[in-house]
Amino acid sequence: MSERREPEMCVLLESDWARGSLVDDVRRGLTRHPRTLPPRWLYDDHGSALFDRITRLPEYYPFNAERAILAAHADEIVSASGATTLVELGSGTSEKTRLLLDAFTGAGQLTRFAPVDVSEGTLREAAAQIADAYPGLEVVGVVGDFTLHLAHLPRGGRRMVAFLGGTIGNLYLEERSAFLGALADLLEPGDSVLLGTDLVKSTDRLIAAYNDEAGVTEEFIRNSLTVVNRELGADFDPGAFSYIPFWDAHMERIDMRLRAEVPQRVNVPGADLVLDLAVGEEIRVEISTKFRVSKIAAELEAAGLDVARVWTDEPGDFALTLAVKP
After folding, report:
1. Which pTM value belongs to this model?
2. Which domain holds residue 186?
């Protein structure tokens, strides 16, 4: 039996990176129209706990749909990739990824797992659990932002980069294009990308998934203001905003916004900023683009990647696409 290997950790983020990045995002996003806050500020400890609850809500299908694909097709994915190194972007707890790790282990194919996440605490805990569960596996955790630190992904061997959960849909079109292009440029011939994408479906189901009866998603989106209050000393009143999720049929995406219900002046001393919000003015906090299989393929091919296989769950709610660097 293989001996457990102690995980390695590569820390690419400075200890104060979050505050500096938040200041930049607040100054840039809240002073333009439409006003925006990047979704990464949803995921403090409370926000991460709320999102974990969201994934278990009856209305929220993506988590279980993607898990069902992995449970049914992990062996095929592993075989088609031919990878010996698995890299996971935005890994979190790597819960679903264990289905891939089990398949890789069963095939005797994997030598290294490299989870990438901005949360050092979460990453260290998950890496330790993976090292315990898969003795002999080299685990190299990377504490970094996948939009900034792609160049630091572990090299060597044939790599498969997994980007799961439909997170690619949180990026605007130009951001997706830049991200996929940068990722493709860093891959070696034979390396691959496993991309999870939520698919277009009925408007009613989409709205329900982001406007659950329990109000968990609303609390999650509203938490972005709480983060700015805590970190930058702002005086947002989260209760003075209503949560507005809607389907943008032209862009084929869910748009999640907070709408001011009263006129208000908001001070953000940590960003040296004062905001005057009119009644009805909105702050866009997150988008979640939905895809068609042909659209996924076109974006990957435009980035220089060849689509090898596509798997969907039985109802056709979600897709996993394997694309290879030629």
Report:
1. 0.93
2. 8-12+59-201+291-324
Q: What is the b/e burial string over 12-50, where b = at least 16 CB atoms within 10 angstroms of the residue's CB? A: ebeeeebeebbbebbeebbeeeebbbbbbbbbbeebbeb
CATH code for position 152: 3.40.50.150
Count the Cβ atoms, other than its own, within 10 Å of residue 100. 25
Residue 17 lies in a domain: no
Distance CA 47, CA 146 (A): 19
Residue pLDDT, tens place only, 267-292: 999 999 999 999 999 999 999 999 99
Report which of 25, 55, 54 is spatially closest to residue 37, judged by C-alpha positions.
Answer: 25
Closest residue by Cα to residue 126 from 75, 160, 43, 134: 134
Please indicate, yes or no, if residue 286 is contained in any of the structural domains: no
Q: Give the DSSP per-residue string, 237-252.
A: -GGGEEEEEEEETTTT
Which tens digit of pLDDT belongs to each residue from 134-189? 999 999 999 888 888 888 898 989 999 999 999 999 999 999 999 999 999 999 99
